[in-house]
Amino acid sequence: MNYKTTEWLPSLIATSKTLGKIPRSLGGNDTIDWLPVDVAANSIVELALSRVSDLELETNALHCFNLVNSRTSKWSEMVTAIQEYYSSKNGIQIQDVEFNEWLDNLMNIDIGEHGISAEEISRSYPALRLLGLFQDWNSKAGGSKFTLKFATESAVGRSKALAEARPVDAHMMRRWLSSWDF
Asked: What is the pLDDT of residues 74-95, one digit of tens each?
């Protein structure tokens, strides 16, 4: 899985590096069930070609599968990997803070301060472009602690790629950080 640097994850990390603060949670979106694109592609092929049972053929059943990683990890594990990466790479210390504190810091950036150009703001604080998304996450963070967990048994049973998928881990995060090079 390789993210474009304008997507939410690299934008959050680049901004966190500039702020010196990273959210220790994602407003309730802390379970990481991300699936690398090559695994997703292979699983789609395997699921499309899987033999359906005679009963499924007779009932003309619609086949739907949840393409998420059944082996999850936690955002807090990624925070640690991010902190260690920047600390060892260039001595940058990034403090983990509550999501609402991180969001307050983002919303209180004085974009007129010191004559910073729009280009510099976009490069240093790309999460500003996604402020609405992060505000939405924050508004939902204080609510129910209900976590949505997708049923994956059927898909995992029919797809070797899904069955063998590894959880997103610190090694994957370090590879992404290295590829983004910010």
From this structure: 999 999 999 999 999 999 999 9
Question: Cα(59)–Cα(48) distance, rounded to whole angstroms?
Answer: 18
| Half-sphere exposure in the Cβ direction for 118 (13 Å, CA) | 1
20: left (phi over 0), alpha (psi -120 to 50) or beta: left
14: phi then psi, degrees, rounded to nearest 5: -60, -40
Task: Assign 3-class secondary structure to 34-77.
Answer: CCCHHHHHHHHHHHHHCCCCHHHHHHCCCCCCCCCCCCCEEHHH
Predicted local confidence at residue 113, as pLDDT: 63
Q: Show the DSSP H helices in the chain as ranges.
A: 8-19, 37-49, 54-59, 75-90, 99-107, 118-124, 131-141, 153-158, 160-163, 170-180
Compute the distance between CA of residue 21 and CA of residue 105 in angstroms, rounded to an integer.
9
**For residue 45, pLDDT beyond 60:** yes
Identify the pLDDT of residue 181. Answer: 86
Alpha carbon distance 149, 151 (integer Å) = 7
